[in-house]
Fold NYN domain-containing protein.
Amino acid sequence: MTVIKHREQRIGIFIDVQNLYHSAKNLFNARVNFKEILKTAVASRKLIRAVAYVIKTESGEEQPFFEALIRLGIETKIKELQIFIGGLKKADWDVGLAIDAVRLAPSLDVIVLMSGDGDFVPLVEYLRNQGKQVEVIAFGKTASSRLKEASDDFLDLSEDQQKFLIRPKIR
């Protein structure tokens, strides 16, 4: 199925930062090039909102990264890392991202979900049933096959590593 992308489409981009970060790190020992992914996702269409869902750790070492996202025009929603008795750590934005996508959907033609998390299948199905075009961008090897199938279009970031990844410099 070929997905139509035209200049008049209003798009919203919802970025599951943890999902992309861990996939890039585990698969390729690299970082995500959010600038290139954002440019590819927008594809000369009308960007209404781009929102990244991020986790703040105790050390705060991620603050420069958050600032870089903001400089790219990506709104960041920050949640504190929860640490439970016994050391279990939890940081989950799935519900927040889903609620924002549903809330903003009436003012969008296209929803771009940057995540491979299969938990988003019901969201994708709901949005498509509302007449929205839903595009998913993630790393193919770590993306849910059901999520890929549920979307109108899937971009596998692994297919152009030069463009979508930032590799550590070898000294």
About this structure: The CA atoms of residues 21 and 111 lie 20 Å apart.
